Structure formats: structure tokens, C-alpha cells
Amino acid sequence: MDHSIKKTDRPPYGIIAVLMIGAFIAFLNNTLLNVALPSMMEDLQVGASTVQWLTTGYMLVNGILIPATAFLIEKYSVRRLFLAAMLLFTIGTLVAGVAHVFPVLLAGRMLQASGSAIMMPLLMNVMLVSFPIEKRGVAMGFFGLILMAAPAIGPTLSGWIIERYDWRMLFHFVTPIAFIVLLIGFFLLKDKKEKKDIHLDIKSLLLSSLGFGGILYGFSSAGDKGWGSPHVYATIAIGVVTLTWFILRQIRMENPMLNFKVYKYPMFALSSAITMVVNMAMFSGMLLIPIYVQTIRGISPMDAGLMMLPGALIMAVMSPVTGKLFDKFGGRILAVTGLIILTVTTYYFSQLTDETTYAYLVVLNSIRMFGMSMVMMPVSTNGLNQLPPRFYPHGTAMNNTLNQVAGAIGTALLVTVMSTRTETHATKLAADMMNNMTAQPTEAVLTEMKHQIEMTAMLHGINDAFFIATGIAAVAIILSFFIKRAKQAEDPLKGKESDGKVATKLAEN
């Protein structure tokens, strides 16, 4: 008997609820960590280039494992995948919480990443299979509400914990919750799956790992090592060559690990391009605003987290509303409107001064997040709606992987712009200041001047990076005008098999 999840009049809300709780915990833990990095550097006696591996390593593991999730979803049941993912995440959280040296902390972080890499595509796939196209907007909207709640409360909660406790409390706080979710999943998830005779192509997995991993590592290292480093361009070159080899192999295979034929469907290809571009622009706010408020303005981590809170809450609350609007009006009007708001507010962020008020930053970031809420979920859902059901695991895996790549590229690009422009501005400011001097300054005055030049130059560098991000967002506006309401395409394999069944039936979860 087939006990797999299928699209029915009554979706499996219990399974979806358990998966969403697991995804929420994974997202919450990720947002808790950012504010804690300075404390970890001090306690573990490591530098910024070392501690950033907690983020880069997490991204690398996701980039390596997510492409394989399409195969895992087709091969194994939701129950087995969820329990494996939560077990890995729980063990990783426990290890990180007891770490007293950096390598142990990094190992725990990698285990967490391996669990969350499986979690997100699995949840997206269940949502796509469980809801018909005309109801997916609302479903994905509530999915967004759950996931946006994590970044809404994460930074503020992290700031509060760090000011009162050791950074390890961030992991101790999550560990019992993750263990409870694991137990709930063990007792509540009962779905079964017919055995499928498919096997993972090891060569494809190795090529995918080297390809996506090389690109992610190269771009992630560029912000720290600089573009002139052979370490950077060599790993990117290896990644590009290996990824090209991987893509050519997948196209020739009858049962590919990651099916690139999803790009034969124009709305999916367009949505993938838009979300990648938006991810690159979005990292400007996630990366540059904390640097501005904490380094230049001297605002505390807790107040910095509180500053981001209203915007994150607006994005969370708007998710179900946007979902309903998507079901009614489609994705184009939402995407165009949201991207215009995103582009304009990003431009205003490129005009920051050392006197910009806290309230202005809160309001501007809130408006920016309001615009963002109209873009990501409607655009990606519209693209996935065009795919035949057997392509859902490949579409969700592709989107999640490319978003990781886009995030790495966006981070590297904006850090590079900020760093190089900061150096340029510092040189010019120093020259102007020396030309205007009428007497030899004292050492104390020189020290003060140097600090002033550094802060002013960094401010200008941040503004320049935001200006580049504005241009990136503008590209997404142009692309969004080509969005059309997607209808599910006919599966080319339908009816061609001797038994009348589709060869790769996604409804088996």
C-alpha cells in the first residue's frame, strides 16, 4: 500500500507543523550566532579571519549537501530524513555548547549545517506536494511567517543573552528545544515510502561538492584575503571548471542527482535569476548596517538587534498577507512593487552620515523589509508552480543552492567594494587634511586625526557599497516585468512508461 504524502483535500498539517518547528529552530540558531562572534573571538583567542569560518563553513556545508537533497527526498521518507536532520542538528548544537577550543566549536557548527541543509528543501517539497497551485500562496505565506519570526527575535535575544551570560548559553538554550522537536518527530511522523531502486552517483556528488564548495569558499574568502590572493581565484576557477563538468554530466544522465532540466521552464528560470540577484542586494543590509551602527556609531549589540526587530516583524507579519495577494493577483505586481521599494530604500542607505538618527534607521530598514516581503516568496513560488511534480525536489534544491552561492558572491562583492573604497577615501582624506595643516600636529592630535579619517573613510565605503547594491536591485526590477502567472507544465514523461506511471513520482515522500 502507498502511504506516501499526496495532494489531497486535507493536507498533512501535523507533518507540516513538525517540519516547520524544526526549520524554525535551525533558523533561530543561525540568527543567534552573528551578535556573538566578537565574544567568541575574545574567549577562544581567535581572529576575525578564523571566526568567520563559523559562517563560511556553515555556508559551505549547505552548498555541498543541498544539491544532494533532491536524491534524498526521492529515495527516503519524510520521517527518516527529518529524524536524521534533527539528530545531526541536535548533536551539533550539543557539541558547540560544550566547546572550549575553536576546532570543536567549528565541528559542532558543521554538524548543525548538515542537519539544516536537509531540513529546508524537505519542508519546501512537502509544502509543494501538499497544496494545489491555487492555494500555495497562502501556505507559503504562513511558511514565511514561521521562518521570518526567527530573524525577528534572534538578534535581540542573542544580544540579551550575550550581555548576561557566556556565549555558550546560545547553544544550551537551543539544545533542549531541538531534542524535544526530535522526540515529537519520532512519535508523530508515521509516513512510509515504497522502496525505490535509485542510487546516488558518487562521481556527481564529488563534482557537486568541489564545484559549489569551491565557488562558495572562493567568494567567501575574497572579503578577507582580497581578490589578488591566488587562494581566492584558484578555488573559484576550480569550482567553475568542476561545476561545468558536473552540469554536463547531469544533462547526460538518465537519473541525475540534480536535474538541470528545470531551467527549460521559463518562469522557474526567471524566478531563480531574480531571487539570486535579490539575495546579492539583500546582503547589503545584513552585512553593512551592523558594521555601520556598531563600528561607526558605537551602538551596542542589543540596541543594534532592536533596531532590526521592527523590520523583521513586518516581514514576518506580511508573509501570509503577501501569500493571499499572490493567490489573487499573481507574482508580477507584488515583485515589481516590492523591488521598487527595496531599490529606493537601499539608495537612501547609501546616503548615511555620522549624524543619521537611530529612528531614521529603524524606519528606513522597516520600509525596506516591507518591500522585501513582497518579493522572495511570491517570486520563488511562482517559478516552482510551473514545474511538473517530479521536478519539485530538484527545483527546491536548485533554489536553495543558488541562494547560498548568490549570498557568498554578494557578500564578497560588497565587502570588496567597501574595503577598496574605504582605502581610497582614507588616502584622499589624509592628503586633504595634511594640505590644510598650518603647523606640525602633536602625537595625540595625529592619533585623533587617524581615527577620524578611518571612521569617515569607512562611512563613505559603506555608502559606496550600498550604492552598488542599489544597482543590483534595479536589475531585479527589470527582470520582474517579465513575470507571468505560472501554470503547471505537462510532464514530458507522462504516459510514456509501459505501466502508465510517471517514472519518477514525487508524491512519494
UniProtKB/TrEMBL annotation:
Membrane topology term: Multi-pass membrane protein
Protein location: Cell membrane
SUPFAM superfamilies reported in the protein's UniProt record: MFS general substrate transporter
TM regions (residue ranges): 12-33, 53-74, 81-105, 111-131, 138-157, 169-188, 200-219, 231-248, 268-292, 304-321, 333-352, 465-483
InterPro entries tied to this protein: EmrB-like, MFS, MFS_dom, MFS_trans_sf
Keywords annotated in UniProt: Cell membrane, Membrane, Transmembrane, Transmembrane helix, Transport
Major subcellular site: membrane
Domain Major facilitator superfamily (MFS) profile: 15-488
Family per similarity comment: Belongs to the major facilitator superfamily. EmrB family.
PANTHER family: MAJOR FACILITATOR SUPERFAMILY MULTIDRUG TRANSPORTER MFSC
NCBIfam families: efflux_EmrB
Protein's recorded name: EmrB/QacA subfamily drug resistance transporter
Organism: Cytobacillus eiseniae
